[in-house]
């Protein structure tokens, strides 16, 4: 196996889970579609920051997008037990009903004892900006449809959600519509997606909505459970 835990998605939930798991000695793979959007907020992140979190370390150094992103990415990449890598997961690798890794758009397969989906607003998203519609989970980050279609093939159900980003320096406002796991697909107390053994979900893709601090806390909760 490449990792003990493979986390798909390096937003607040996935990155925070990876950092906390690695700090307790677990070998973690942290995969993201785009290394340029690791731990990148839509709008500045306001204190208070959850105690003991990566956010508590980096938040005071820069609450705005790129400053926060670069400080967090530096810590994740330099952690001896985290392999931060760019790949887009397209399918789960399965042995019977058990997940043993992921396949990727780029080609490489990565294997792990446990797989965590922390894919945020990237399951079948549509981004509306002015008269333009894109398949993207955030501005400038396209989403491939494969993983969502594969999860549907496996029988997972989804419900639609939507969120708005207000206009900010240099960018007009926009809206993202996305899918999240349907109630019943996710066990809130274990964070498991029990349709597949060894599969977990964390953050926006299972909660539907919530603040950055909540995503951070959920990432830390996952690390404590695994
Ligand atoms: C449009 C919008 C605006 C929001 N604004 C705010 C706000 O202002 N304040 C606030 O407190 N909360 C806001 N939220 C809510 C929530 O706090 C954020 O969405 C937060 O970023 C969610 O964290 P996350 O880690 O679950 O997912 P995300 O931050 O979305 O991270 C998902 C990660 O998964 C990766 N990924 C997705 N699919 C794949 C794949 N197939 N393979 C590999 N990697 C993949 C992406 O690259 C990304 O790294 C907003 C939500 C949305 C949708």
On the 0 to 100 scale, the average pLDDT is 96
Largest sheet: 7 strands, mixed
Q: Kindly state the number of beta strands.
A: 13
CATH class: Alpha Beta
Quaternary form = single chain
* CATH topology (fold) name: FAD/NAD(P)-binding domain
Unreliable spans are: none
Q: Radius of gyration over alpha carbons?
A: 16 Å
Q: Give the count of structural domains.
A: 1
Helix content: 10-25%
SSE run:
EHEHHEEEEEEEEHEEEHH
Per CATH, the architecture is 3-Layer(bba) Sandwich
Count the helices. How many? 6
Distinct ligand kinds = flavin-adenine dinucleotide
Strand content: 25-35%
> SS-based structural class?
alpha/beta
CATH superfamily, by name, is FAD/NAD(P)-binding domain
Q: State the shape.
A: globular
N→C terminal distance: 17 Å
Could you describe the 3D structure shown?
- There is one protein chain.
- This protein is α/β, with parallel strands linked by helices and 226 residues long.
- It has a single domain (1-119, 181-223), classed as FAD/NAD(P)-binding domain, CATH 3.50.50.60.
- Helix content is 25%, strand content 31%.
- It contains six helices and 13 strands.
- It has helices at 12-23, 54-58, 65-77, 146-153, 204-207, 212-225; strands at 3-8, 28-32, 82-86, 89-95, 98-104, 110-117, 126-129, 132-134, 136-138, 141-142, 158-165, 174-181, 199-201.
- β9 (136-138) and β10 form a beta hairpin.
- The protein is globular, with a radius of gyration of 16 Å.
- The chain starts with a strand and ends with a helix.
- Residues 8-14, 31-34, 37, 42-43, 88-89, 118-122, 137, 147, 163, 165, 176, 203-204, 210-212, 215 line the site of flavin-adenine dinucleotide.
């Amino acid at each position: 196996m490449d990792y003990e835990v493979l986390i798909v998605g390096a937003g607040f939930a996935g990155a925070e889970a990876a950092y906390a798991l690695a700090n307790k000695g677990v070998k973690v793979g942290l995969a993201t579609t785009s290394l340029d959007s690791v731990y990148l907020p839509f709008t500045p992140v306001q204190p208070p920051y959850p105690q003991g979190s990566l956010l508590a370390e980096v938040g005071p150094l820069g609450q705005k997008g790129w400053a926060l992103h670069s400080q967090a990415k530096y810590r994740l990449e330099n952690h001896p037990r985290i392999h931060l890598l760019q790949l887009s997961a397209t399918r789960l690798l399965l042995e019977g009903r058990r997940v043993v890794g992921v396949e990727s758009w780029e080609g490489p397969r990565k294997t792990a004892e446990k797989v965590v989906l922390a894919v945020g607003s990237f399951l079948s998203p549509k981004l509306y900006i002015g008269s333009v519609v894109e398949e993207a989970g955030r501005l400038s980050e396209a989403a491939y449809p494969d993983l969502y279609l594969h999860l549907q093939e496996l029988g997972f159900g989804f419900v639609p959600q939507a969120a708005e980003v207000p206009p900010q320096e240099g960018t007009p406002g926009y809206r993202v519509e996305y899918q999240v796991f349907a109630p019943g697909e996710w066990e809130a107390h274990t964070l498991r997606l029990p349709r597949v053994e060894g599969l977990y979900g964390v953050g926006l893709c299972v909660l539907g909505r919530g603040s950055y601090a909540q995503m951070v806390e959920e990432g830390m909760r996952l690390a404590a459970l695994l």
